[in-house]
């Protein structure tokens, strides 16, 4: 069961990394479409187009920040904890170990139960 927790956490990290690589590719190869997505994200908040244009200009100069913005506000993804797969494996595996030992305690501690 600990393996399942590990694989789940690892898959989350891999998914985030794959989406981040895709966003970098889109920022480099389809910047106009990505700029329009920024407008689509920010206009419902009531920002004036000239303010959004200045944000877009800032992002053009800082592609890492642009990708961070798109990951959070377009895709709704926050960077996962890189240690999460191990933490999940230990938590799930430990819980199953403790849960499996509890029913055996009477057989170990009470002589007549043997």
TrEMBL record:
GO (cellular component) term, any one: endomembrane system
Annotated keywords: Membrane, Transmembrane, Transmembrane helix
Listed GO biological process terms: intracellular manganese ion homeostasis
GO terms of molecular function: manganese ion transmembrane transporter activity
Keyword Membrane: yes
Transmembrane segments: 89-110
One protein family per Pfam: VIT1
Keyword Transmembrane helix (UniProt): yes
Compartment(s) of residence: Endomembrane system
Annotated membrane topology: Multi-pass membrane protein
Superkingdom to which the source organism belongs: Eukaryota
Similarity field: Belongs to the CCC1 family.
Protein name (record): Uncharacterized protein
Annotated source species: Erythrolobus australicus
